[in-house]
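thought: fold this chain, then report.
action: predict
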Amino acid sequence: MIFQDLERHEIEGLGRFYKSPITSKWYPSITTITGHKKAEFFANWRKNPENEQSMKFSAELGTNVHTIIEKYLNKDPTWNSSSMLYEKLMVNQVIPELDKIENIEKKYGR
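observation:
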C-alpha cells in the first residue's frame, strides 16, 4: 500500500474532509467527527486544572502508540519493546487490522 497525500477540503462550520482515492467520496476527518459532539464537553474539561495530568498522559500515550504502530508496520523488531501496559494493550487490539495492510512503501519528502 502506498500512502499518498489525500485531497482535503476545509468547510467552514463543518470541519475538514478528505476525498477517497478509491471511491472519490468525501469523508470527514476523525477530529471533525469527534469535535462536533464533544467540543463543549472537552473545552470545559480542559479548563479544569485537575485534568492536566490526564491530558499529558493521554497525549503521551497517543504519541507512543502511534510510534509503536509505525514500527510494527515497518517490521522494526523493537516495536514490542515498550514497558507500558496501556500501550501494549492498545496496539495488540489493532494488530489484526494492521496485519491486513500489505505492501507498505515509505514515502519521503513530504
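thought: worth noting. The beta strands are 8-11, 15-19, 26-28.
final: C-alpha cells above.
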